[in-house]
Design brief:
Number of domains: 4
CATH architecture of the largest domain: Alpha-Beta Barrel
CATH superfamily of the largest domain: Glycosidases
Structural class: alpha/beta
Helix content: 25-40%
Strand content: 25-35%
Radius of gyration: 27 Å
CATH topology of the largest domain: TIM Barrel
Number of strands: 34
CATH class of the largest domain: Alpha Beta
Number of helices: 16
Oligomer: single chain
Largest sheet: 8 strands, parallel, barrel
Strand order of the largest sheet: 1-2-3-7-8-9-10-13
Length: 657
Amino acid sequence: MRKHLLLALIPALLVAQSGWWMSEPLRWLQTNLPEPDAGTDPILLVRDAAAFHANVLHLNMGGIAATYPTRIPFHTRSSGLGPNRDFFGEALRAAHAQGIRVVGRFDFSKTRKDAFDAHPEWFFRKADGSPVIYNGLYSTCINGGWYSSYAPRILTEALEAYEVDGLFFNMFGNQTRDYSGTYVGICHCDECRKRFRAAYGRDLPASEEDADYRRFMFDSSRRVARVFGELIHRLRPQAGYFNYLEEWTDGIMSESNTAVSRPLPLWPYTSSDNVNRARNSQPGKMSVNLCMQFVDYAWRFATVPAAEHPLRLWQNIAHGGALAFAINGTLARFEDRDMLAIDAARPVFAWAALNAQSLKGQSSLARVILLTGGPQASYRGIFRFLSEQHIPFAVATNLDWIGKRPVDLVLTAGELPAGLEPFLQSGGKALSISPTAPALGTPPPTRLMPSVRGYLHVRRPELFPSLRKSPLLLLDGPFAASADAPDAPLTLVPPSMFGPPEFIHTDLRDTFTPAVFSLRGGAITWVPFDLGGLYYRHSLTSHAALLTDLIAPLLPRRQLLTNAHPLVEVSLMEQNGRTLLHLINLSGHSQTAYFPPVPMHGIELNLEGRFSAARALRANQALPLRAENGRTLLKLARLNDYELVVLARAPAPGVRK
């Protein structure tokens, strides 16, 4: 579940090392190896990774099963590891000889019965005191000694023995469901009971939904994350620390994945969402978004549609993240089962290797910020609208960007935080789309109507030119009602009769209840209903038109104007003084399917700024430019699945080059 903005503002050490993961273009291949694969040829594995054009190999190292000859009790050697074999060590040396970096994978969330028998206090306990056992493995507790003292002992052995380039930790923290989706609840071990009572003065709650418990688990996982990070940096200063957490790590891991029970519609922007958010929330850390090849846990060797893989991968690099792909098993084993994923991902890795220098060191040029928070559907509705309108935007979980980058407009589907005050004082604009009133701008007193099935009435069409033919808009959901305002440009039409047909809306009545507010002299626009969620669920043109007209006066200068189809995603990035324009064709996505995208032709691009040259790298051709009123016009003849346009800035007038 997405972390709320306010939770993300909890003070923590977020400064990361700036190592190879920030300075090198990353083509990251993760191989999740079943135990028998520790008996395969590591040299062949590395050769296959090199042929795949990977320059980072993410490889099993230890935790549940060690792929090297560990000497630490309770740290079980993989059953596939022969008595005189060091699979990880051999793979590491072979990879380094090929110029491939190696990130070791650990999973301390589960271990064997011998450790449980010797130290039952280290383990997760259900409410009835029983342990959580899955396929013979016992779940550990993030607050127990296995994580806090024994895991660092294992890591010390590994870090001292191997010149590893980084470490990654899977399943970090206490999981309330097992791999089969069975609910096991929260941990009730003695250490959790003691720590929670000391922190909050009460017993553990019944559910993880308790706000204190969520904070408790946040603090618990970050405490251990700090221990791991400091240990790695002390013993291997050049090694990176990677986790699914933002805090204390050097890189932020995430996944683009699927699940058969996941609610529809599918989210085709999953990679863009993950990478955009990570890179702009923590610019000093690399985003490694693993594009998972499998459909769901129970079907690890069944791949998602082939066309979905390149779409996810192109989105990764278009927002400045690592090109990252994950499979289960070695490449050789995987090819014996299903070539779809490998065949689809391989050309992307090959192209990225040829154009590596144009992909590393990217940062977003977007001057619109989308803050996380609010219901997921509401956030996604705004995200999708901005993408369809080709408005470059950066996603942020915090306000650390204030004063550090130029920003014209901030949007949120959650509460507009009080910390935005410095941004507004400097002339910034904000659009809050939520039934929760913003903390800034002294909004009027409101009462929440939890579910309104009515309409919105456009009273001043001159303010909403896109809605001249749609004066009534569907409203379904929560609405923050306030005192009447006769001059309100958009007002509430409450529910009325809709059946039988003879009675349809015969009692329809208008009101002066405002449905949009202008606060602080127009610096803040507040929409007191879930417009983002409505657009996400229904995709009505009237809701998109309302968003268009709300944003237009707040964002009079658009960085990019284009005639591209709404299903062409665009990101605007900077790299060493060059401007990079990524275009991704999403037209192949249809409901639960992904097909090869339909080629797009004659895409006109109008960019703010003056540029002296433009080149489309995939098409391998220069694009003609034309300057006009401080902007640059260019045209892309054809877009297949993806294109990267590299633009060189023109010297300022009167400046000799």
